[in-house]
Amino acid sequence: MSLNVDLLKETFNRAKEENGGLKTLGLRFYERLFEKYPQVKHLFHTPPEEQHKKLMASVGATIASLTEPERMVPFLQAMGVRHLKYKTESAHYGAVAENLVAVLGEHLSKEGEWTSDMQTAWEDALKAVSDIMIEAAENPESCKESLLKAGYDADGFRKDTEQPWVLVN
Ligand code: HEM
Questions:
Q1: Is 136 within the bounds of a domain?
Q2: What pLDDT does residue 168 have?
Q3: pLDDT tens, 80-131?
Q4: Which of 8, 72, 75, 151 is the most buried (most CB within 10 A)?
Q5: Ligand 1, atom 38: nearest CA belongs to which residue?
């Protein structure tokens, strides 16, 4: 699947600037997630005030590395494997993707436009991200070499940072 990199970057840059920026977007993400999908709420132990920064940093890192798959893929594989520790199930990814696209649409509609092309660009991107994370989580052994080569441990964490959601190198 070829992703609409320009539109993804443009809309994410707008999200940083408009409607209170990534803080508003990130907090709204968890508010809507827990309203619409209350069955996943018990998995989260970090308060949204902290958690949203990690989510937004990981989305930003992904968008910034879309044209560098050799950096982006191990980053996402590592994140997928780490989610095993958080008791995430493959079936939850659809809810998180739906929620992120919905809140982004809400966010960007406040001060500007949200078009069907933007919606499609983000749905495709979230599908691609989820596929990589799920595949890694379902078969961590298959991506172990890729993780180690990129500086991650086999469990997706890194010894050189306590913030593995930030893309280094
Ligand atoms: C687009 C897919 C996703 C992205 C980009 C994402 C991003 C993140 C990030 C950056 C963290 C911080 C910890 C770390 O990096 O290891 C995290 C933690 C977490 N994520 Fe995700 N995630 C995704 C999908 C999911 C799904 C589908 C679920 C299931 C409901 C989920 C549940 C959690 C939980 C429970 C935590 C730990 C929260 C805590 O510390 O209490 N995530 N996620």
A1: yes
A2: 80
A3: 999 999 999 999 999 999 999 999 999 999 999 999 999 999 999 999 999 9
A4: 75
A5: 44
The CATH number assigned to the domain holding 30 equals 1.10.490.10
d(CA 121, CA 40): 26
Residue 155 lies in a domain: no
- The helix (run of H) or strand (run of E) holding residue 12 is helix 5-17
Q: What is the pLDDT of residue 89?
A: 97
CA of 118 from ligand 1 middle (Å) equals 23
- Rounded Cα–Cα distance for residues 53 and 2 (Å): 28
List the beta bridge partners of residue 161. 158
What domain range is 27 assigned to? 5-149
Cα-to-centroid distance, 141 and ligand 1 (Å): 20
Residues with CB under 6 A from ligand 1: 40, 43-46, 51, 54-55, 58-59, 79, 82-83, 86, 88, 92-93, 96, 126, 129-130, 133, 164-165
For residue 110, the CA-to-ligand 1 centroid distance in Å is 26
151-162 pLDDT, tens per residue?
Answer: 999 999 999 999
Amino acid at 120: T
> Which amino acid, one-letter code, is at 63?
I
| Domain count for the chain | 1
168 lies in some domain: no
Measured in Å, residue 57 CA sits from the centre of ligand 1 at 12
